[in-house]
Task: structure prediction
Amino acid sequence: MVQTYSSSKIKIQIKDFELLEVSSGKKKFLKDFFSNQATVIMFICNHCPYVKHINTELIRLANDFMPKNISFLAINSNDEKKYPEDSPKNMKKIYNKLGYPFPYFFDETQEVAKYYCAKCTPEFFIFYGNGNLCYHGQLDDSRPGNDIPVTGVDVRNVLQNILKGKKVDPTLKLSYGCNIKWKT
Result:
């Protein structure tokens, strides 16, 4: 595992892509899952210990905010040949085992990760319903072994402010985790 920080570059507009959605086994457009309130795009994968550390909170967070018209999309951009645990077949197993309430997409060409300048897992992007980025970075300060509870406080605060109608200036709070496993 290579500890990698998220990019300080941020794309300011949400963009649609067509990717394999693993629970259905079909290619779907991301835009079909965007919300007119806010959309959270998460770069995660199966094997990363940083993602495993927060999986329970990801599910809790999505279950708390999806009924309030905030959508969540998870994307795995890792090279499945080098990391078979992150293959679509294994993604579907994790999706079912954990009961993800959000779609889990496979970015086979890695074009989505490149567009968003994603560098690590987990890495979060929150967009207003109009498609403008308002947050890029970490879930919270918890990491495996640092004894800080997993609360999702950074993402939760942004989403609560959106629901209250408060303007959130674009915020960057660097995440760190495993590097995205790029194809060579």
User: Anything to note?
Assistant: The chain has a mean pLDDT of 94.
